[in-house]
Amino acid sequence: xxxxxxxxxxxxxxxxxxxxxxxxxxxxxxxxxxxxxxxxxxxxxxxxxxxxxxxxxxxxxxxxxxxxxxxxxxxxxxxxxxxxxxxxxxxxxxxxxxxxxxxxxxxxxxxxxxxxxxxxxxxxxxxxxxxxxxxxxxxxxxxxxxxxxxxxxxxxxxxxxxxxxxxxxxxxxxxxxxxxxxxxxxxxxxxxxxxxxxxxxxxxxxxxxxxxxxxxxxxxxxxxxxxxxxxxxxxxxxxxxxxxxxxxxxxxxxxxxx
Length: 258
Description:
Elements (H helix, E strand, L loop, with lengths): L1 H43 L23 E4 L10 H4 L5 E3 L4 E3 L5 E2 L5 H8 L9 E6 L4 H10 L1 E2 L24 E2 H4 L2 E4 L4 H12 L6 E5 L13 E4 L6 H15 L5
Parallel strand pairs: 1-5, 1-9, 5-8, 9-10
Antiparallel strand pairs: 2-3, 3-4, 6-7
């Protein structure tokens, strides 16, 4: 009987030890994933944003464009999740080219984003495109703060990091424009992206078939049930991805020729 009790204790102790090892392994993997994402955020976040890069080819090739182009935010326009990576309060730095959080982490757009957004509204396009953002983040206030703090440098503005302006006006000292003001429609709230587009369609009056949506998450492809063309950008928005998305929209709509 005593031997059995000892064996039972040894067995239970062995199970507890294995459980502890399993929990520690899970915690270690979680920590590695978080640190990896954090380092990825730092490596993907440039210190300077610029509008001097060329616009997407499809914006100036004379062929039809969607009337409305919408973008997700997290890992689509910028390389981080606002609800997990960013800790308020936020402060604009370096002529509003980046925003710094409580812990000194810097956040801004992917490199191509400013020129894409500005060129969509440029007179060089056949018709200026209506821009929208559709994000399901659980931290909409932080996302909006970032959009207001990050400015899009005008083509004539020198890119500089010598200043630490924290201005929140719609125009910076060099005529820069707040990213917030470039969007005609802003829908940021948790939930199915179809709800975001229902609001955008109601506000804009633009048919779903005239919309193109860029997002890094495949699950949001369900907006195509409404008639929106979805284009996945697993590594964020670039000029090349915008061109691919626009060409796909043209192909589906039979508008590949002038």
